[in-house]
Amino acid sequence: MSAARGGALVVSLMVGGQLCGLPVEAVRDVLSPQAITRVPLAAPEIAGNLNLRGRIVTAIDLRVRLGLVAPEGRAMSVVTEHGPELYALLVDRVLEVVPAPEGGAAPLPPNLPPAWRQFGTGVYRLEAGLLIMLDVPALLSLAPRLAA
Question: What pTM does this model have?
Answer without folding.
Answer: 0.86
